[in-house]
Amino acid sequence: MKERSKREKKVYNIAQTSLDAYNSVNRGDDTLYSNVLEALDMASFCDPDEGLTCDEIEVMLDARHQSVSSRIRAAVKKELVRNSGKKRKTRSGRNAIVWTVTREDDDQEAEE
């Protein structure tokens, strides 16, 4: 087998590092995604119209904004989470969407 040049080794190492990073972020078992859904589910357990802002979830899970907001977006695309139509203040004082889990009767209400 031919030995790689220094340049080839460098390119290979960069590619392998990128692949490792991609795999660590895009693994099948996304614990944070599950935790975000669980937090929203718990928030709406007693009151179906209650939910959480991204900021509130970040605090609960001690997670970064980018990580939590991307998980919320993924759940919205799968129609597991929806915008409740409400807003609440974040830690910085800005208004934020209150997210809630999608219920089966949400579709029926929309049709009526």
Description:
By secondary structure, the chain is an alpha+beta fold. The chain has a single domain, classed as Arc Repressor Mutant, subunit A. It is 55% helix and 14% strand. It has five helices and two strands; from the N terminus they run ααααββα. The protein has a two-stranded antiparallel ribbon with strand order 1-2. A hairpin with a 5-residue loop joins β1 and β2. The protein starts with 5 loop residues before the first helix and ends with a helix. The model has no long low-confidence stretch (mean pLDDT 80).
* Overall geometry: globular
Count of domains: 1
The CATH architecture designation is Orthogonal Bundle
Output mean pLDDT: 80
CATH class: Mainly Alpha
Poorly predicted regions? none
Helical content (DSSP H or I, runs of 4+): 55-70%
Distance between the termini: 69 Å
CATH superfamily: Winged helix-like DNA-binding domain superfamily/Winged helix DNA-binding domain
Give the number of DSSP strands.
2
SS strand fraction: 5-15%
The biggest sheet amounts to: 2 strands, antiparallel
SSE order, one letter for each helix or strand: HHHHEEH
Widest sheet: strand ordering: 1-2
User: What oligomeric state best describes the polypeptide chains here?
Assistant: single chain
Structural class: alpha+beta
Number of helices: 5
**What fold name goes in the CATH topology slot?**
Arc Repressor Mutant, subunit A
